[in-house]
Design brief:
Layout: H1 4-13, H2 21-33, H3 36-52, E1 54-55, E2 62-63, H4 69-72, E3 80-84, H5 87-94, E4 102-105, H6 123-130, E5 137-140, H7 146-161, E6 165-168, H8 184-192
Helix pairs in contact: 1-2
């Protein structure tokens, strides 16, 4: 026996990344079992986030302010911009507490197979930011996959023409990793990115 409202909720929850139909159904039944206020708090939180959160007009990350806290922080340097693919990447980088510059979110990576070219990303906005004369280095922190590497190479070429240093984050063997279980591409990147001790 299918209950239309539960089925509708299950279908919507199954649209979340990494959530299959069985998990979505479990979530749906969980939401029906919790106190009504708790379920409505979740619904209100989703509505509130969708209504109040937008892209920062400067860097492109998510914010509920006019400009994000990173772009308005006077303690950060304007000389270095870290380029990432998605807003969630900004939060990942911030967890390191090692970067004190600004960010630029591309909203994706170059992917000719998916029809995503330079005009579909925020590459033009990045080049405009680099024309201020303040930017000395751009760190390319795109993902170490085919699309991320192509995006980094494309942007590096544009930056070189402007006389701005482009650097790439190192990729390689993770801390606590075992060489025996590391794939060849990762090991090659680790060798390529080696440094003097």
């Amino acid at each position: 026996m299918a209950i239309a409202s539960i089925e509708k909720l299950t279908v919507q929850l199954a649209r979340l990344p990494g959530v299959g139909r069985k998990t979505a159904q479990r979530f749906a039944y969980y939401l029906l079992a919790v106190p009504e206020e708790q379920a409505f708090e979740l619904a209100d939180s989703i509505r509130d986030a969708r209504t109040n959160v937008h892209r920062c007009p400067v860097c492109g990350t998510f914010t509920d302010l006019d400009l994000c806290e990173i772009c308005t922080d006077p303690k950060r340097t304007d000389a270095v911009i870290c380029v990432v693919c998605d807003p969630k990447d900004v939060m990942v980088m911030e967890k390191t507490r090692e970067f004190n510059g600004r960010y630029h979110v591309l909203n994706g990576a170059l992917s000719p197979m998916s029809g995503i070219g330079p005009k579909d990303l925020r590459i033009g906005e990045l080049m405009e930011r680099c024309e201020s004369g303040k930017v000395k280095e751009v760190i390319l922190a795109t993902n170490p996959d085919v699309e991320g590497e192509a995006t980094a190479a494309y942007i590096a070429k544009l930056l070189k023409a402007k006389g701005i240093t482009a650097t790439r984050i190192a990729h390689g063997v993770p801390i606590g990793g075992n060489l025996e279980y590391t794939d060849e591409v990762t090991l090659a990147k680790a060798l390529e990115g080696r440094r003097v001790l």
